[in-house]
Amino acid sequence: MKAAHIVETSDGSTLELRDVATPQPGAQQVLLRVKASSLNRGELLPTGKPGERPGGVEAVGEIAALGADVRGLAVGTRIMARCKGGFAEYALVDAGEAMLVPQRLDWQSAAAVPIVFLVAYDMLVPYGRVQRGDWVLVTAVSSGVGVACLQLAKALGARVIGTSSSTHKLDELRTLGLDAGVATRGDLAGDVMRVTEKHGADLAISNVGGSIFPELVRAAAYRGKIAIVGYVDGSLEAPLDLAAVHSKRLEIFGVSNRLRSAAERAATVAGFKRDCLSWLADGTIAPLVDRVFDFDAIAEAKAYFDRNVHMGKVVLRM
């Protein structure tokens, strides 16, 4: 089968096609005939370790085969899921990660769901505990995770402030419910306090990294929370105003699956299916797909993705 690998060198990373063997499902896995996948910033950032690895951390498609111990799923069922090796004609999916694709979603739209909406759910619901009327600050709001956070926060009844270096993107995202947009390079904390009438952000989401983190501490509300999810600026360190964290009684948490067990990941999927899947089914949440590329044009897709001109997700169509 065809599969794309991430090839990392000292000059960066590329996506290159390979011919590899079709995998076989383990006892708790299903074999997915992939219809679409999408690009995600986290897996494409340089690791500092030259080499190559299978690409793609999510996929959608039809179940082609079931593992011996899988129950409640059938061959031919349309599913979407996080997985490893999603940039391929076939991919293995842990049964606990599988989510049924709502009828209203085509393959390309469904491919824009698993990673970013599960990350957004993890931040906003079990950890962020967002309530109706809260102020949610989403940095890099036009990114895949940013748009998912915007849509989910609005569905939860929150008010959303988004940051971007592009005023055009901020204007476009108002159609998805963005309440206020602020420039990344301006007085971020001051703008947030002005918009919220000195209340601050009940939840601030850091998609950017260390360069912006001190501003998020300043912008946080009393008893506010700060979620760390991305480092597009490449900065893994930031000064920390301990007095502000102390006096505001802030909570700071990270959102990553790197060290989570399969059971922990499956619990997040179960929560999302219970709380949010109906919003995808009825159109309350509509995944934002910026552009679709054929699988054979995967190198072109990555080049477009790296230009950072997109809003939402860049999708690969098998």
Structure description:
By secondary structure, the protein is an alpha/beta fold. It folds into two domains: 2-113 and 287-317, Quinone Oxidoreductase, Chain A, domain 1 (Alpha-Beta Complex), CATH 3.90.180.10; 117-254, Rossmann fold (3-Layer(aba) Sandwich), CATH 3.40.50. The chain has helices at 41-44, 107-110, 114-127, 144-155, 167-173, 188-195, 213-219, 242-248, 262-275, 277-282, 298-306; strands at residues 2-9, 12-19, 29-38, 51-54, 58-66, 78-82, 90-94, 99-100, 135-138, 159-164, 180-183, 201-206, 220-228, 251-254, 289-294, 313-317. The strands form three sheets. Strands 3, 5, 6, 7, 8, 15 and 16 form a seven-stranded mixed β-sheet that branches. Helix 11 links the parallel strand 15 (289-294) and strand 16. The protein starts with a strand and ends with a strand.
Query: DSSP strand (E) fraction?
Result: 25-35%
Q: Give the integer mean of the pLDDT values.
A: 96
- Counting DSSP E segments of at least 2 residues, the number of strands comes to 16
Q: Which architecture of the largest domain per CATH?
A: Alpha-Beta Complex
